[in-house]
Amino acid sequence: MEWVPYGSAFLAFIATHSIPVRPAIKTRLVAVFGPRGFTLAYSALSLIMLAILISAAGNAPYVPLWGQAVWQKHVAFSGMLAVCLLGALAIARPNPFSFGGARNDRFDPARPGVIRWTRHPLLWGLVPRRRDFDGLMGEDSCLG
């Protein structure tokens, strides 16, 4: 039962990010709120759900899977480098598959960049949580 709040928050986060942007639903919401109102409401909902998800993740139980080794710190740092690069590439590229992307008219399907691997790279970059690396970093790390 300790995982229910986190699982519920994660499912709600995914639902609030995928359902409102479905074409049929988005069309109706834009008709009600207008384009700017929809963007503001969707942005506010996204921020609220992100805060709820972060809070639930912070309260989720910690389950150590194995003892800690020094090499694991390097793996965690390398993984975070990949995540940061993925996030930077996601923000820098036009992405017509993601809601609210800038410069989507400049998207070239022949040269999709990071979009070739995933339709929403920023979401994949945000999947790892800080708490996943708490045990690896130790008390004296900049993340601990």
Core attributes:
144 residues, mainly alpha, 5 helices
How are the elements arranged and paired?
Blueprint: H1 4-18, H2 23-59, H3 70-92, H4 121-126, H5 134-137
Helix pairs in contact: 1-2
Structure description:
- This protein has 144 residues and is mainly α.
- It has 2 domains: 61 residues; 78 residues.
- 59% of the residues lie in helices and 0% in strands.
- Helix 1 packs antiparallel against helix 2.
- The protein starts with a helix and ends in a 7-residue tail after the last helix.
- The C terminus is likely disordered.
Describe the structure in brief.
The protein has five helices and no strands.
Query: For the terminal residues, how far apart are their CA atoms?
Result: 27 Å
Order of helices and strands: HHHHH
How would you state the average pLDDT, rounded?
80
Structure annotation, total helices: 5
How many domains, in number, for the residues? 2
Major beta-sheet overview = none
Overall spatial form? flat
Strand content: under 5%
Radius of gyration: 18 Å
The amount of helix comes to 55-70%
* Number of E-state strands: 0
